[in-house]
Amino acid sequence: MRSSSLADAPAIREPRHAPVAHVMRGGLIEGVHYGSVVVLDSGGEVRTSVGDIEAACYPRSALKPVQAVAMVRAGLPLDGVLLSLAMGSHSGEEHHLAGTRLILELAGLTEADLRNVPDLPYGPAVRDAWVREGRGPSRLAQNCSGKHAAMLYLCELSGWPLESYLDADHPLQRRIAETVEDLTGQRIAHVTVDGCGSPLFAVSLHGLARAAARIATAGADTAEHRVAGALRLHPEMASGTGRDSAVLMRAVPGLLVKDGFEGVQVAALPDGRAIAVKIADGADRARIAVTAAALARAGVEPRLLAGFAGEPVTGGGRAVGGVRPVAALDPPGPPVTATA
Q1: DSSP string covering 133-155, please?
Q2: First-last CA distance in the chain
Q3: Any idea what DSSP says for residue 261?
Q4: Label partner for 226 (CA 20 to 30 A): which of 59, 82, 249, 334?
């Protein structure tokens, strides 16, 4: 049953995004990325906000750790590598495919039981090799296949229908919706369908950061603690070799990180400091630079974030600029609020 103490659902409106990063070329601003950013302190209070952190938004795959908590709460017995894969947006490397097959085998199922959308591997190098081998789209290669395999495994264990596991009113998806509301502290604003076919729940960026903080700080013997431990120990299973989210988790001790399509990123530290980012135009080039700046704003040592400034802007084959987060995201100082 959903708690009556939850905050109201976030407003469904055109987000009041603000500039979050400037694209610099030769010392001048060539372009501007708009978006929203929230930084929470260890007590859960907003330290910094840029743009509109309370409007309803789709967290996309940044919500997968919350989905994983829901599944573990409901009895999913996975841990470690396979639990990390269950919240993954994987690159389609062989260990991702093998892990997904193993989850399906544990359930007594096969790739044919998956209901995610067939696709090529997400990782560029893996995808290129896949195509050179003459292989086409498959459900196993699609980046959410680990999550879908875990969903099916839980359904099999729970005696829930398999064919309809992606329906919003399925017992599994109702459990996930309840957990989304519990961890974000607010009611879901809207439900639609994510790219992979699973239900997608609209929450606020603020709520997404709260959920990440709760997972990162949870005590032992909780589903949240299991999920956090799996992601911290095996970040490449939730993303891929060399992917920025995995590299960032390796660089900052104890950090939890999950990205999502359309420029979404969430991260949280073991003491509860958390950040969430939404790049309005969905451009990936601004996401990691803004994420690193928000983490620095949260108090992460800048030296740990030195490799996450984003791709350089080039001219004539050499770097002539880059993506520079706005001044409101400069490292610690008094609380700052910036709005459009």
Answers
A1: TT---BTTTSTTHHHHHHHHHHH
A2: 38
A3: T
A4: 59
DSSP string, 320-334: EEEEEE-GGGSSSSS
The residue type of 320 is V
**DSSP output for 192-213:** EE-TTSSEEEEEEHHHHHHHHH
**Residues contacting residue 85 through CB under 8 Å, at least 6 positions apart:** 96, 99, 100, 103, 146, 150, 234, 237, 238
How far apart (Å, rounded) are the C-alpha atoms in residues 290 and 119?
Answer: 29
Average pLDDT over residues 216-236: 98
H or E stretch covering 181: helix 171-184
Stated pTM of the model = 0.95
Residue 128, CB-side half-sphere exposure with 13 Å CA sphere: 2
Q: Which residues pair with 57 in a beta bridge?
A: 203
pLDDT at residue 109, rounded to an integer = 98
Backbone angles phi, psi at 17, to 5 degrees: -65, 155
Q: Could you tell me if 294 and 275 are in contact, meaning their C-beta atoms sit under 8 angstroms apart?
A: yes
Residue 199 exposed, middle or buried by CB count within 10 Å (0-12, 13-18, 19+): buried
pLDDT in tens, 50-89: 999 999 999 999 999 999 999 999 999 999 999 999 999 9
In the 8-state DSSP scheme, what is residue 122? S
Structure tokens of 309? 């400034």
pLDDT digits (tens, 9 = 90+) for 89-148: 999 999 999 999 999 999 999 999 999 999 999 999 999 999 999 999 999 999 999 999
Amino acid (1-letter code) at residue 237: M
Which residues, in sequence order, are CB contacts of 329 under 8 Å at separation 6+?
20, 37, 48, 50, 290, 293, 294, 296, 297
